[in-house]
Amino acid sequence: MSRCTVDDWTSSAPDRKHEQVRWILESPYPPVPADLTARAASQGRRMLHRRLLLRRLLLVTATLAVVALVVLAVVTWPGDTPSGPPATPPPVSG
Amino acid sequence: MRGDKEAARVRRAHEFEAFAGGAAGRLLHVATLLTCDDAKAADRLLCHALARTYLRWDRLRGEDPYAYARQELVTSYARRAGVGWLHPRRREETGRLAGLTPQERVIVVLRLFEGVEDEQVAALLGIAPDRVTALCTRACVLLRGGAQAPAASFAGRAAPASGR
């Protein structure tokens, strides 16, 4: 409580001044709407649902990407085709 | 599997409702102070903060849900205050904390209404503890000035740039 003071604060009783500000802050309490908790819970559920959907979508996309990569690699991988010198030599020009 | 998920959902809903039922009053007061007694804005702010707490509920792991909800309240208020947060201008608003900038409002409410320590407030706002102390003092002077006589000498004074 005494932390919120600086040297140039002229009063010798800062706690009393804080009490005054606290009094301003604590005056009338607004009533809580009856449906606030239910609204917050349903909004939270919606957010949770959206997050779950997004996560699933990401997972599916990542899986598809991996599968596509593997298929592409298998199809285009250089196989056991002989890589020795060609049977017919290239034509000599000149 | 589905039964487990359903049971977890029901348990979460019960726990959350018990928590929100107890904490909503005080958190609504905090939200009302921050939004300058704008009941609608306070309601929206609190609803969003509580929804975020619900979202996080299973991963709180011993963390105080009240502190988490309050933190969400403050951060979404800061986001809502937007440009006014970084370049504060005392706008024409009514309410108890109308004369303060959004940042000063957060500091005064957390320090004096919620009793949060300077260091924690500083960590939450990302500024130096000294600056929190200075801003709190200035806000107190402004509030007391507003309650008694206008504190003109403080209204236009630039804040000391020690915290940034």
TrEMBL record, chain A:
Entry protein name: Uncharacterized protein
The UniProt keyword set, sorted, is: Membrane, Transmembrane, Transmembrane helix
- The portions of this protein that span the membrane are 57-77
The organism of origin for this protein: Wenjunlia vitaminophila
Automatic annotation (TrEMBL), chain B:
InterPro entries linked: RNA_pol_sigma_r3/r4-like (IPR013324), WH-like_DNA-bd_sf (IPR036388)
Q: Which domain of life is it from?
A: Bacteria
> What is the protein name for this chain?
RNA polymerase
